[in-house]
Design brief:
- The chain folds into two domains: about 15-140 and about 265-270, Orthogonal Bundle (Peroxidase, domain 1); about 145-260, Peroxidase, domain 2, CATH 1.10.420.
- It has ten helices and five strands; from the N terminus they run ααααααββαβββααα.
- The chain has helices at about 15-30, 40-50, 80-95, 100-115, 145-155, 160-170, 195-205, 230-235, 240-250, 250-270, and strands at about 175, 185, 205-210, 220, 225-230.
- A three-stranded antiparallel beta sheet has the order 3-4-5. Strands 1-2 form a two-stranded antiparallel sheet.
- It is globular, with a radius of gyration of 19 Å.
- The structure holds protoporphyrin IX containing FE.
- Protoporphyrin IX containing FE (HEM) binds near residues 150, 181, 229 and 263.
- Protoporphyrin IX containing FE binds next to helix 2, helix 6 and strand 1.
C-alpha cells in the first residue's frame, strides 16, 4: 500500500542502437583479429545459433543461446565460435538487460551492416534458456557434402532453393581455419566486405582440387589463394541452384535485397514474437 510498483526497464530503439554502437566500436578497435575484423565470426555465431532450427518439432533456433553450454558448445561445427562469444561478453556486461540470444543476433546484424552489407531489420524478443534446450549434434551443414545434403539441412529449417543460395552469399565473408574445421582459406579477396563476389567467383574462376593433406576442398586455378568447399560447389553443380547463383552474380542490388530478407528469416526462426514486437533498423557507425 503506497509502495511504488517495481520499475521494469523496457528497452527502446535507442537502447538497442546503443548496443549496436558498442559492438561497432569494438569491431573497429579489435582489428588485430584474422583478416582485420571479428565481423565474419560474429556473423557465423548468429547463423549457427539460428541454424539448429527444426520446423517440425519447433526446437532449436536463435531463441535460447544454448551454445553457451556443452554439449552444443562442443559440437564440431561450432569450433572457433568461442572467439565470437567472448568478443560479445564485455557488451553483455555493459548492457546486462539484453539476453544473450538477442545480443548474438544483434552482433550478426551489426557486423553485416558495418561490413558494408545491406540493412538488416532487427526484432528483439529472444529469451535465454538452459542447457536442457541444447540441440543434438548434426543439425548444421556438413561442408564435405553436396546438393542433396544441403537441401535436407535447409529444408528442415523451412528454406527454399532460392533462399539457400541467397544465404550462402555470406561466404563472401571470412575464411576457413584448419584449427576449426580442417579447411583452409578465404572464399573472396575482400573477406571483410560483403559483396556478391562469392557468386562471381563460383562462376568466373576455374576450380580444381587442392593437393594437400587436409580435407577435400577446391582452390582457384589462377591464384591458388581462394577456396570453395564441396558444399559451395553444390550451388553450381545443381541446375536449380545455379540459376540463382547467376542471378546474384549479375546484380549486387538483387543479392543485397534477397540476402537481407532471408537472413532476417534465419535470425527469427523459432522466436516467439507477439503482435506488439517492433522492428528496428539501426544506423551504421558512419551515418
Ligand atoms: C565459415 C561451412 C553456410 C557464414 C564456414 C566454415 C565452414 C562453413 C566449414 C569455416 C569455419 C572455420 O574453419 O572457422 C558452411 C556450410 C554451409 C554454410 C557447409 C552450408 C552449405 C553458411 C551460412 C552463413 C555462413 C548460411 C551465413 C548466413 C559463414 C561465415 C564464415 C563461415 C561468415 C566465416 C567465419 C570466420 O571467418 O571465422 N562455413 N557454411 N555459412 N560461414 Fe559457413
Amino acid at each position: 500500500y503506497g509502495a511504488a510498483e517495481p520499475k521494469v526497464f523496457k528497452p527502446e530503439f535507442k537502447d538497442y542502437q546503443a548496443v549496436y554502437n558498442e559492438i561497432a566500436k569494438l569491431l573497429q578497435e579489435h582489428d588485430e583479429y584474422d583478416d582485420g575484423s571479428y565481423g565474419p565470426v560474429l556473423v557465423r555465431l548468429a547463423w549457427h545459433a539460428s541454424g539448429t532450427y527444426d520446423k517440425e518439432s519447433g526446437t532449436g533456433g536463435s531463441n535460447g543461446a544454448t551454445m553457451r553450454f556443452a554439449p552444443e558448445s562442443q559440437h564440431g561445427a561450432n569450433a572457433g565460435l568461442i572467439n565470437a562469444r567472448n568478443f560479445l561478453e564485455p557488451v553483455k556486461a555493459k548492457f546486462p538487460w539484453i539476453s544473450y540470444s538477442d545480443l548474438w543476433i544483434l552482433g550478426g546484424v551489426c557486423s553485416i551492416q558495418e561490413m558494408m552489407g545491406p540493412k538488416i531489420p532487427y526484432r528483439p524478443g529472444r529469451a535465454d534458456r538452459d542447457m536442457s534446450s541444447c540441440t543434438p549434434d548434426g543439425r548444421l551443414p556438413d561442408a564435405s557434402q553436396g546438393p542433396r545434403h544441403v537441401r535436407d539441412i535447409f529444408y528442415r529449417m523451412g528454406f527454399n532453393d532460392q533462399e539457400i543460395v541467397a544465404l550462402a552469399g555470406a561466404h563472401a565473408l571470412g575464411r576457413c581455419h584448419t584449427q576449426n574445421s580442417g579447411f583452409d582459406g578465404p572464399w573472396t579477396f575482400s573477406p571483410t566486405v560483403l559483396t556478391n563476389d562469392y557468386y562471381k567467383l563460383l562462376l568466373g574462376s576455374k576450380w580444381q582440387w587442392r593437393k594437400w593433406d587436409g580435407p577435400k576442398q577446391y582452390e582457384d586455378k589462377e591464384t591458388k589463394t581462394l577456396m570453395m568447399l564441396p558444399a559451395d560447389m553444390a550451388f553450381i553443380e545443381d541446375k536449380e541452384f545455379k540459376k540463382t547463383v547467376e542471378k546474384y552474380a549479375a546484380d549486387n542490388d538483387v543479392f543485397f535485397k534477397d540476402f537481407s530478407a532471408v537472413i532476417v528469416k534465419l535470425f527469427e526462426l523459432g522466436v516467439p514474437y507477439t503482435e506488439k514486437s517492433e522492428t528496428f533498423v539501426f544506423k551504421n557507425s558512419d551515418e
